[in-house]
Amino acid sequence: MTLGSAFRAFVTVACAAFPLLASGQTWPDKAIKFVMTAPAGSSIDVLGRTIGEKLSARLGQPVIVENKAAAGGTVAVSDVAKAAPDGYTMVLGYNGPLSFSPLLQKLPYDVQKDLLPVIITTSQPNVLAVNAQLPVKDLKELVAWARANPGKLNYASVGNGSSSHLNMELLKSVAGFDAVHVPFNGSPPAVTATIQGETQLMFAVMQPLQAQIQAGKLRAIAVTTATRFPLLPDLPAIAESGYPGFEALAWNGVLVPGGTPKSVVARLNAEINAILREPDVVQKLHAQGFDLIGGAPEDFAALIKGESDRWAPVIRKLGLKVD
Q1: How far is CA 131 from the centre of its chain?
Q2: What domain range includes position 268?
Q3: How far apart are CA 127 and CA 203, in angstroms?
Q4: What is the distance between the terminal CA atoms of the chain, rounded to a whole angstrom?
Q5: From the centroid of its chain, how far is CA 174?
Q6: DSSP letter, residue 257
Q7: For residue 323, what pLDDT is reported?
Q8: How are strands ordered across the β-sheet holding 115-125?
Q9: What is the pLDDT of residue 161?
């Protein structure tokens, strides 16, 4: 090869690589779409809009929140998995479409191959809440009532394959009672059904339950952490209420399409870590029961895989499938 041909070959390779390099170096130069796996008014929506507003200010570009609550969050995750890997589309996901649904049904995406984790945003227990008209004050009374009144309990979940769904199925199994699953697309309609008596109980994080508990329409009776949750100290853990070893968390995190430049992932991770430490964000989200986490992309990747590995035998034992 002559010096001239070698130089031409170098220029060709360099030009081919330039768009990828440039995209990372100039990012962001336009609006970013932030897809929510739950509807407006849900805990994910509140969390996503809080992060999105702060992120927009830090990056100097609009962050446009788009809610796609269908199919337990799997539609939102699928759309982002198929989006261009340019750093302008991201999703706020949770256990359901990331760790649980792949164990329950065939999905149009592979979490490990089609998505890149950016950061764990939050982790919190699910709260077991009942319609205030149900004559029970604690978990022991709930289980006794359910056993004495077979066929009279329906429970709401925030979607098929969600932690809200799996936590109740696990509780039914270990406590020995029955209740019919009624899945909804997100927490707002699930909460509405429970306060109206269409369903009588549900698991959800505290944020969508809080106002209805304060209004006396719902009664919170337990949390799913192994011990009492510091942000909700008055609620006993299921594990201390007769079912030792019961533990489950609802977590959230940001992902981007697979193939997104590492520099963009690193910038998003750094910015969101900083946002999660801002005092006003901490105060606002702690008041709604969110425990702010943060960390590296690798931490989130390990959490997604670890949750799948942990729940796979539980799902097999319970014989669960998407309704």
Answers
A1: 24
A2: 30-123+250-318
A3: 5
A4: 64
A5: 24
A6: E
A7: 53
A8: 63-67, 32-36, 89-94, 249-257, 115-125, 291-292
A9: 84
**In terms of domains, do 160 and 63 share one?**
no
- pLDDT tens per residue, range 95-124: 989 999 899 889 999 999 999 999 999 999
Q: CA-CA distance, 36 to 39, in Å (whole number)?
A: 7
Residue 280, domain CATH: 3.40.190.150
H/E run at residue 183 = strand 180-183
Please check whether residues 45 and 57 belong to one and the same domain. Answer: yes
At position 89, the amino acid (one-letter code) is: T
Cα dihedral sign, 221-128-194-141: negative
- Taking CB atoms within 8 Å and a gap of at least 24, the contacts of 47-54 are 47/92, 47/121, 47/122, 47/252, 47/285, 47/290, 48/92, 50/281, 50/284, 50/285, 51/92, 51/121, 51/254, 51/272, 51/275, 54/275, 54/278, 54/281
The first and second tokens of residue 65, run together, are 């929140």
* 3-state DSSP assignment of residue 78: helix
Nearest to 65 by CA among 86, 92, 85: 92
Quote the tokens at residue 229: 């949750």
Opening angle at CA 267, ends 261 and 269, nearest 5: 105
Residues 194 and 220: beta-carbon distance below 8 Å: no
Residues of the chain with pLDDT under 70: 1-25, 322-323
Distance CA 65, CA 91 (A): 9
Whether residue 15 lies inside any domain: the answer is no
Asked if residue 72 belongs to a domain, the reply is yes
Do 119 and 157 sit in the same domain of this protein?
no
Token representation of residue 211: 């106002």
